[in-house]
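Please predict the structure of the following assembly.
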Amino acid sequence: MAESLERIIPREGYDLHLIHTKKFKTIHLSLKFTSKLTRENITKRALLPYILQQGTENYPTAIQLRQHLDELYGTVLAVDSSKKGENHILNIRLELPNEQYIAGSQDLLDKGIAFLREVIYQPKLVNQGFDPKIVAREKETLRSKMESLKEDKISFANTRLIEEMCNEEAYRLRVHGYEEDLDKITAEDLYAYYQQILNQDHLDIFAVGDIEGLYVEGKITELVDEREQQPIEKGKKVASANEQTLIEKDDIKQAKLHFGYRTNITFDDEDYPALHVFNGLFGGFPSSKLFMNVREKHSLAYYAASRIESHKGLMFVFSGIGPEQYEKAKEIILEQMEEMRNGEFTDNELSETKEMTINQLRETLDNPHGMIELHYQSVLAQSSITPKELLEKVNTVTKEQVMNVANKVKLDTIYLLTSKEAEQSEA
Amino acid sequence: MKHKHYQQIEENIYADTLSNGLRVFILPKQEMAKTFAIFTTDYGSIDQSFVPLNEQDLQTVPDGIAHFLEHKLFEKEDRDVFQDFSKLGASANAFTSFTKTAYLFSATSKIKESLQTLVDFVQNPYFSEQSVEKEKGIIAQEIRMYDDQPDWRAFFGTIKSLYHHHPVQIDIAGTVESIHNITKDDLYTCYRTFYHPNNMALFIAGNVDPEETMAFIKNNQDQKDFEAPAPITRKFPDEPKEVAEKEVTITMPVSVPKALVGIKESVIPKDPKEFMEKEWLMDIVLDHLFSKSGVAYERLYEAGLIDQSFSSESHLERNFGFSIIGGNTKDPEKLAQAIKQELLNLQTTSMDQQGFERIKRKKIGQILRAMNSLEFIANQYTHYQLLGIDFFESIEWLENLTHADMQDFTKNWINEEQLSTCFVKANE
């Protein structure tokens, strides 16, 4: 693998991550504002990405803002919010073509950074707040987003599972916020809170691309106003598992059977590479136990897979089943976990899974977003492990380590979203 | 083997046509960890009526057979090929479109083994009556899954409204009834005709050595026997200029209704450069109106007629072409009317010089950005290669388009008779 070097430079007010690579024809700038998840602020943080893309002082309407991006050779501005562990991240990013590939283009990076600065520090204001008309309309956009999430039954079931499983932990909070908060948010409050993010969140800035000799370090200094860097708070692990089953009904034909486990293994743990391999064998790939048994062998599900959460130490199993197949599917899924605990997988399966896991991680590094996200995982975990070291560790995982992980994983909550007609023997 | 260096974008293509007719393209990119390979046949859902290899008479096969064949190629007498790729740590996939069927993998190690697996499994079919019957149930499930997807239904509903006879209007996977009639012999007939190396292209992009890889493929092909290459006769019905139905409505459970407007192309340029220019111009004009920086987009958004789902897309192929514009809306009739009006107004009020240059810039930047992806490069290059166009060269044609070209184009592009509307609504 060709080396992509990351340099981390702690600056006054933020950490700068420079990743020089010749893989891409674009330059990527990404600002990640990180703060603790709180019920009080979650809806505001979910609303801000919509507002920031609607206009600035010099480009006061969405179309003017978008047309300016077109002028910069289709530069992409994206603002979104997400949660990782018990942190909320407001992400503002810009993707510019590298001007060495465009005849006649000049100062694209400078123009891009100037524009990014305007989006961040000079949003369209009316008096002491955002433009109230924009805020009112974007509240509706967010409201319809919340609404449409109810139509995506997989995501809805996963949200409900997490709410019940983590009902006393910040991780329960919905990333898109809560409808009942929307009416209370004013254009002034929202702007005041945004100032708080700019000044008081933890900030990481990533610059990725063929950036050697482009003086990115100095340019970023001009991008960011004076601020104070804050530490990142790590999420709390919860050792005890609830051991609960929850059944809810909805107007659906295919039932969703989801499981929530506590691995208590996070990105910075010794066991983390083995957890990756465990997940690969259990449910991460089409060749995994869940897919092969629940779907292929017993034809019970249209999908059956597992996914790990790296900063809180959780694992989720997802499956879509016929409502009448609940008991059978549950039994088979639990059986697969037992087999993992007993080490019922071959050396071949282990080495193939390691290879697929490594492939997947290496392919992630062939994509600019993937590269940033993987590096950011270490930031959140306050770990110094590089992606390359992670790959090497995955390669040395043994059967005993995988079984050891399997025995640490504790089932917390079984969640079934089923049809209104379905009869249940268990409540 | 020919080597071509494209200076502006700093890419290299190594190309060769082997003695059996197979076209092989290699784009080395040593910086990447990954290699992506795609093996494509110039055969898709529209290729229903043709003269089978070594026969004289035209034959018409059941709807959905190209897609059915794609599924069946993965199944061998003793195993499923997906597992072969898993064993190599690679991930494989396949797709069928209107005009192509493609098999692909990506991997970061054991590239030669995966390449051999790819080429060998596609070139060694195993179809049995029993496995064909079994597949009918699985594909029927897939078709029913699509039946539940409002966006897919709306897309095909629009295409159906545009065409009287052309087979682009049949669903790519066929229908539960049509696939029921597929036999093992039908599959072999299609396979022999369309999977001849002469009708196929292999594109390999990523962390590979071009000489070594080309020699490896050549050696693999030299060990296999194929019949002499022969041109394939395909038959397409005559298609009127005007749309088949001005308006169709699909009823299914949706929480927000949809409105889509379709534009049917009647003139498809034969000359590669003219073809490509037409495609760029369609794209530029739709962008000018309906992208997020588009003038019509702003009007429709301000009027509360559209949301984030609103989009437009174009398809131009050898013998058909269409565009589709629309999305979710509270007022489907009003949205459809507004979109049509925007299109019809093009004849009198098109974009100004500055707007045209701006969108051209955006397109050039978009292509560059997309080229970060090996998948994009391989798919696009193959797509245009099969149409006789060098995609990398065509970027220069885009740069050279003028405002006057665009004005000429919009003068004649849209006529009322080429437009249709498809609504998706919930049952009252």
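The radius of gyration of chain A is 23 Å. The CA atoms of residues 293 and 332 of chain A lie 8 Å apart.
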